[in-house]
């Protein structure tokens, strides 16, 4: 079981604006910011989560990974998947799969996919039947 995931981004301000908007419909918000003064190496890290626990991190300090990164976040229902997709597109994301059933995974798999400013594939998914 994963505790958290983190990856590098090329422009922390652009990515922060994108993730602030895209994750809000899923109930995620910025929980923690680790500043360059705190890290001692000049890097900045932003931790997003629910209920005060950051489990989704973005940060500076190296080249962004541009190939193969896929992160899926559980959505509480299908409406929040739809809202995530709309918010992510409005924040500059690129459509990589409109909200809908993906029955090839299982009958109630409802997901949406967007590409973030660095080319990462972000998904919101609900496994609920409604």
Structural summary, described in words:
- By secondary structure, the protein is α/β, with parallel strands linked by helices.
- It has a single domain (5-126), classed as 2,3-Dihydroxybiphenyl 1,2-Dioxygenase, domain 1, CATH 3.10.180.10.
- The protein has 3 helices and 8 strands; from the N terminus they run E-H-E-H-E-E-E-H-E-E-E.
- The strands form 2 sheets. Strands 1-4-3-2 form a 4-stranded mixed beta sheet.
- A hairpin with an 8-residue loop joins strand 6 (94-101) and strand 7 (110-115).
- Helix 1 runs antiparallel to helix 3.
- The two termini are 26 Å apart.
- The relative contact order is 0.23.
Question: Can you give me a brief rundown of this structure?
Answer:
This protein is α/β, with parallel strands linked by helices and 130 residues long.
Which helices and strands appear, and what pairs or packs with what?
Blueprint: E1 5-8, H1 12-23, E2 29-34, H2 36-39, E3 45-50, E4 53-59, E5 70-74, H3 78-90, E6 94-101, E7 110-115, E8 121-126
Parallel strand pairs: 1-4, 5-8
Antiparallel strand pairs: 2-3, 3-4, 6-7, 7-8
